[in-house]
Amino acid sequence: MSSILVAKRRDDYRPSDFFIDTVDISFILSPENTEVCNIMEVTRNISGCDILKLDGEQLNFVSLMINGRLAKENIDYTLHENGLDINLDVDHATLEIKNTISPINNTSLEGLYYVSGAYCTQCEAEGFRKITYFLDRPDVLSKYRVTIICDRPELTYLLSNGNKLEDTLLEDGRRKVVWEDPHRKPAYLFALVAGHFDRLEDSFTTSEGREVLLEVFVDSGRLHQAGHAMSSLKKAMKWDEDTFGLAYDLDRYMIVAVDFFNMGAMENKGLNVFNSKFVLAEPKSATDEDYFNIESIIAHEYFHNWTGNRVTCRDWFQLSLKEGLTVFRDQRFSEDMSSALGCRIKQVKVMREHQFAEDAGPMSHPIRPDEVLEMNNFYTVTVYDKGAEVIRMLHTLLTPAGFRRGMDLYFARHDGQAVTCDDFVQAMEDANDANLSQFKLWYSQSGTPEVKLALEQNQLRLTQTNKPTPDQAVKQALYIPIKLSMLDEKGLEHTVDEEHLGTFVLSQEAATISLPERLQHGVPVILTDFSAPVKIDYQYTLDEILHVLRFAQSHYAKWDASQMLYSRLIRLAYDSNEDNDNDNNSDNNNDNNKYNAGQIQSLTNLIEYLEQATLPDDVVAQILCIPSFETLAIEYTQLNPSRLQSAHQELTLLLARTAKDCCERRLKEQRVLPYRYEQSEVNRRTLFAVCIRLHVLALSQEGKGNDLLSAYAQADNMTDKLALLKAAQQADINAFDALMIDFEEEFGHDAVVMDKWFALHATAPRDDILSRLDLLQAHSQYSVKNPNKVRALIGSFAFYNTQGFHAADGSGYKYVVDFLMKLDAINPQVASRIITPLLQMNRYESTYKSLIESQLSRLFTQKNLSKDLFEKLSKTLA
Ligand code: ARG
Ligand code: ZN
């Protein structure tokens, strides 16, 4: 096996032999052949080292000068597939390296690439080595000066990090722009963008009195869609000053929106590059969810300027140092800007739907991984979202004020450095005089802890179980903050932890809490606000769940109770379908048979409660949402996906019937106003979306239709239109087809909007879905080279079209694997995302498992398989 397929280990970290103090890099841009000249001042860091090993991939080497002298191959240097080794037995040297690259042929969208008339870079994690030879590691910090020369006057903007020093027209007609970034930075934060854009300008004066020029660059003709991004940026700048005392540190902040991008966005110093779907918005084309995501991602990248850029990571194993922390910061920001409860529910759904699955699969890893083959595979829900949950627990345990003290100390100690997660926790400990040694296991231990709760006569017993994961056989007890209370029989809520703060810390394998007599027949309310990223096991009766729903003070706890009720009912239907599968005489279609009177009554009681309580619109909407298939799937072993899908559908139909009057009334009560993105209106529209979907389902069960077409025509915004489309997709396929044609006519020209159209098609439950996918791939707006299109179409199918993807003949699996064989050669990072649902193979019943296994084995033997897929497949098939 080639050495490149050997994983790196966190324990093997060694400081760099050399440093690169300054980089003076010039580009003569051309799509086929861009010339790069890179002049570096290097310094020896470890005495005795006499070979400077520079990383380099897919570069055409031209020449090397060492201190002004032309170097000779095999005497002064050797070239190999992954870089350049330079014999250098001196403490200081000036190197000048020339190489060329071909941006137009770079379909991986990593390094410098050229697509639809613009140049763009993406360097995190290890893309800079595809631009020039370099010490491409985050603990090598350098000062950059960048020169861009271009002979195409139509490219109005030639951008890089920092401040613009020069912008001149050369005698030969070419344009030359020079940038300098005064802050030392790792290579992954380098950026270059050259293209023709429209530009939105604004300004912000920082708390330190700095006047900052703010610029948002978008495709021409889209300036009117850039305003929300700009106002989000200003809100984020203000919030970080107010909340953490952190102000911006350059005179210019640029955001560029591009259509071809592997991920959401990138925090390059002073020059953020964004996927256009996280910048562009107007009511007609963007949903409330888009508005929310734009605000939070703009904030996320902005917050990186301190957590990531000013203090960066020592090595890539420390990724959560910047990502977990920055996600936590953007979450807090969103909670302040919108609805805190709505935000928390969204965050918890991500954990339960995606992170728990990742942690239960072959790619299970701690938030600080120990072993990595392809770093791009570790930009995961574990590193990001579980990482943010770990930071949130620190925030809970240390209190907001204590957390702030820790942050202040962290910046005081480490500004300008490349550090580790341990350094971060140390600052939190020192600033608070706390001992976090057991807490730190959250950084090193993978897997989702399970906390079992038992109500024994006069006490509550809590037990934690940490099952082995493929990457780690032995586990230790974690330090778990559990928000906990008890409801007495009358519904009064009581704290029960010793300190009566409402949070009990479970730090051993088992613990007990004694209960006063009046609570000995009470009902626990547990893990309120998802105070730790764990699963809870408590055997509530259906009546007890309803007791929590009715009487818990916290809206979060009410929502969580509704989710438990639905999960429980779906489990009952699933189990009864299992009996039916073994008994051919039974009637599988009559879902009422799945439930006894008491079970049906529990749903009626839930709706009755919603009708008489006065809960905010968004809480009602959330309570009327059944957990997704993916969220439920994690609770099953030997899962039969089509049986779970039917059970899910059965409960959905029953809920639609039970909630029919409730939904009808709430739909009638809606007072529709012209679209505005503000919280009360967002809540109202969220409730509309949930109710219309259930209502259309209820009517279709009665053989009645609903006038979705005229409602669609009247909607003045994308949020309502999409709600109507989704309702039609699930219940009224004729209306769906008609609306989709209408949608395409109206939005066919808008790439960002058309992603919604592709995704709706891909998730439609229909028997001919695979031939549909073929047709859609031939659509003029589709391109296999565009990650947004691939994710919208094939990604949505694999992640969310349960029926089609898990077709019993294996055709869905085969379709996705055929596609991955093609995509891997074009863009391995995107291929490695799309494969995710197939990695759950080992959790399925044997027939499904072997269908997936044979497809993955076929993929594994493919020639020139990327490192990205190799790493995931070898773990899955192990
Ligand atoms: N640092 C970026 C962000 O979270 C994401 C970079 C993702 N890089 C990757 N290779 N997947 O804001
Ligand atoms: Zn980030």
Automatic annotation (TrEMBL):
Occurrences of domain Peptidase M1 alanyl aminopeptidase Ig-like fold (ranges): 447-539
Domain Peptidase M1 membrane alanine aminopeptidase: start-end pairs: 229-439
Catalytic EC class: hydrolase
Keywords: Aminopeptidase, Hydrolase, Metal-binding, Metalloprotease, Protease, Zinc
Source organism, top-level taxon: Bacteria
Keyword Protease tagged: yes
GO terms of molecular function: alanyl aminopeptidase activity
Domain Aminopeptidase N-like N-terminal residue range list: 33-189
Pfam families in the cross-refs: DUF3458, DUF3458_C, Peptidase_M1, Peptidase_M1_N
Cofactor annotation: Zn(2+)
EC number: 3.4.11.2
Location of the Peptidase M1 alanyl aminopeptidase C-terminal domain: 543-878
InterPro entries assigned to the protein according to its UniProt record, in alphabetical order: Aminopeptidase_N-like_N (IPR045357), Aminopeptidase_N-like_N_sf (IPR042097), PepN_Ig-like_sf (IPR038438), Peptidase_M1 (IPR001930), Peptidase_M1_dom (IPR014782), Peptidase_M1_pepN (IPR012779), Peptidase_M1_pepN_C (IPR024601), Peptidase_M1_pepN_C_sf (IPR037144)
Record's catalysed reaction(s): Release of an N-terminal amino acid, Xaa-|-Yaa- from a peptide, amide or arylamide. Xaa is preferably Ala, but may be most amino acids including Pro (slow action). When a terminal hydrophobic residue is followed by a prolyl residue, the two may be released as an intact Xaa-Pro dipeptide
Similarity comment: family membership: Belongs to the peptidase M1 family.
Name of the protein in its database record: Aminopeptidase N
Organism: Glaciecola siphonariae
UniProt gene name: pepN
